[in-house]
Amino acid sequence: MLDKKILCIFILLFFVWSTAATASDTAIIHGAVYEWDTFSPLENVIVEVNSTPSQSMLARYGVYSFSLQPGAYMITASYYNNNTLVSYAKENVTITDNGDYLLDLILLPADLDIFYENKFSELEDISVFAEEDKGPNYGYLIVFFIVIIIVLAAYLYTKNKDDNNKNNSDNELEVPNVEVNTPVSDVLTSDTHMDELQTLPDDLLEMIEIINAAGGRMTQRELRKKVQYSEAKVSLMLSDLEDRGIIRKFKKGRGNVVVLADIEE
Question: Which residues, other chains included, contact 224 with Cβ-Cβ below 8 Å and sequence gap of 6+?
Fold first, then answer.
């Protein structure tokens, strides 16, 4: 008889302990339900939560309360008038531990959700249409023009380089087979030139001798380096010799080539 009493006491203590343990893991979530336009408590609202098992209650005075275990839930509130859904609210909530959670709900008109859904669907249709009706892709055109500019720049650079090489090659003159340091009188054999040589100033004779020493042909730039005269005076002296028929000037590239007249003939 005593053993049965002890067994009943242990069973009662286990039941109390399990109930207390369960209650210690339970959180209370509660709040009020309001109208969206007046923010006044809305009575007789059906509030539901998707717990396991699901829970629902009628908030007669605009307040609700649920006991929930830790987890993620969705709480919905619906207000009906003559079996017609008038306003509606939906909120997600996460319970992390036991305690007290306050969550007020504001009910929006039910037809407002329909309005938004229609508008959103129209916006999605418009966005899809806009993607399908895209204009020309200007990115390819930009890349194409960049490539054209690079090719054109490379062509101009190569052409300019070739022109410079051509000018340099033009400046490298062929020296005629005239013995260096040949006397000027042996080069200028005509009687007219011999008479002029006797009357030429010393600076002009010096210039003729320099040209003759270079084989009877040289560039004006090289001649300018070998005399102590300015570029303007050298040009005037060469013009004087050309007028006398002693030298000839030819345009080669960016400069002139000076040739003794008899050698040029």
Answer: 231, 234
Q: How far apart are CA 258 and CA 222, in angstroms?
A: 10
Q: Do 47 and 56 contact (CB within 8 A), yes or no? A: yes
Q: pLDDT class for 176, splitting at 50, 70, 90?
A: very low
Give, in order, the Cα–Cα distances in Å from 105 to each of 47, 115, 239.
10, 21, 107
Compute CA distances 46 → 60, 68, 75, 92, 161, whole Å. 9, 18, 11, 17, 89
What is the spatial distance between Cα 13 and Cα 7, in angstroms, rounded to a whole number? Answer: 10
- The residues, any chain, with a CB within 8 Å of residue 239's CB and separated by 6 or more, are none
Confidence of residue 264 (pLDDT cuts 50, 70, 90): very low
Measuring CA to CA, which residue among 52, 65, 127 is closest to residue 101? 65
User: Can you give the pLDDT at residue 254?
Assistant: 82
The full 3-state SS of the chain, as one line of letters, equals CHHHHHHHHHHHHHHHHHHHHHHHCCEEEEEEEEECCCCCECCCEEEEECCCCCEEEEECCCEEEEEECCEEEEEEEEEEECCEEEEEEEEEEEECCCCEEECCEEEEEHHHHHHHHHHHHHHHHHHHHHHHCCCCCHHHHHHHHHHHHHHHHHHHHHHHHHHHHHHHHHHCCCCCCCCCCCCHHHHCCCHHHHHHHHHCCHHHHHHHHHHHHCCCEEEHHHHHHHCCCCHHHHHHHHHHHHHCCCEEEEEECCEEEEEEHHHHC
Say how far apart CA 125 and CA 229 lie, in whole Å: 87
Q: Are 59 and 45 in contact (CB under 8 A)?
A: yes
Q: What is the dihedral of CA 46, 49, 50, 51, to 10 degrees?
A: -130
